[in-house]
Amino acid sequence: MTPHPTNVTGTPAEALLKVRDLRITFGNSAEVISGVDLAVTPGETLAIVGESGSGKSVTSLAVMGLLGAKGVRIEGAAEFDGQRLNLAHPDSLTGLRGDRMAMIFQEPMTSLNPAFRIGDQIAEAVRCHRDVTEAEARARALDIMRKVGISAPERRMRQYPHELSGGMRQRVMIAMALVNEPALLIADEPTTALDVTIQAQILDLISQLQRDRGMAVVFITHDLGVVAQVAHRVAVMYAGRIAETGTVEQVFNDPQHPYTIGLLGSIPSLTGPRTRLATVPGSVPSPAEMPKGCRFSTRCPFAQPKCAEQPRLRELAAGHRAACHYAPLELSFGTAA
Ligand SMILES: Nc1ncnc2c1ncn2[C@@H]1O[C@H](COP(=O)(O)OP(=O)(O)O)[C@@H](O)[C@H]1O
Ligand code: SF4
Ligand SMILES: [Mg+2]
Questions:
Q1: Which residue's alpha carbon is at the smallest distance from atom 1 of ligand 2?
Q2: Which ligand is located closest to the Cα atom of residue 310?
Q3: How confident is the model at residue 135 (pLDDT cuts 50, 70, 90)?
Q4: Which residue lies with its CA nearest to atom 3 of ligand 2?
Q5: Whose CA is nearest to atom 3 of ligand 1?
Q6: Each residue of 29-38: pLDDT tens digit?
Q7: How many CB atoms lie within 10 A of CB 61?
Q8: pLDDT tens figures, 287-333
Q9: Ion ligand 3 — residues with CB under 5 Å?
């Protein structure tokens, strides 16, 4: 990981993307996202980690205006490059998406159309947002394909998605996301399905493009090794809320929320051999069975009666926040009733 050029705590004033008090509800069921704040600055990588079902994808889809499900209600304030985003009306984000902000997914076929040649799809992504000729669009497609390490790009342009390997499809999807030089890239588990060699290449590629262009990246992953490798800051999500956030060093070396401590295993370390999330006994409660107060209380080994009240995300050190009544832990445990 390269040091972030500005300040790793990302003061809101310089944030490219700011999200305040995001709340998402599907139909008549309970809220699945309940008051999430996020900020990411140019050149910075924010990792979002958490078990399956924590709300990582729903959060990022809402920010991209891609959560178009019927009956979905999105509340909260968001700003992108000083401009207010109306998350409640995903259509209002159509002009930004694929242009100044782009997203890549675990499964590239989510973004690739199986019926069209690769070159036509990337060129079309250019022509959707830029007033250029067909020839210029194809030249840009070819250029980005080379930059993301696609060999024989002229030949690849004529191929269909099913003719490519998984790793190559992933590169094509990244090329398509980056062809218009977005200021923000949201990557939702983009390497989870790939073998480790390809995964490492893709991570290097994203980091390199980020350095070259000062792009802000929100990187969603299960893999703590990946967080240590690519991220400056990390937000740990649990059941639709942020449990803990801070710099990678703060959260890995000095975790303060019992959930984070559980995920990191008993001996948190930035350099240890552990790369996967450790298993925390139990599972994320469904929105319908969410406990009152601290949502982690059904699994927390330290739960107390007070935990029936919702803990605030409190600042413990500059930029390091945790939502636990008893943080900082080493000072409180043992004395708590
Ligand atoms: N279209 C939907 N309708 C109803 N509930 C949904 C929908 N999409 C996601 N959810 C719920 O939102 C929660 C968060 O899901 P998700 O963001 O996919 O988690 P993650 O990406 O962290 O694994 C889950 O409880 C999931 O069941
Ligand atoms: S508030 Fe209580 S239940 Fe929640 S993480 Fe802290 S100790 Fe555990
Ligand atoms: Mg997901």
A1: 324
A2: 2
A3: very high
A4: 297
A5: 26
A6: 888 999 999 9
A7: 21
A8: 888 999 999 999 998 999 999 999 999 999 999 999 999 998 754 45
A9: 57
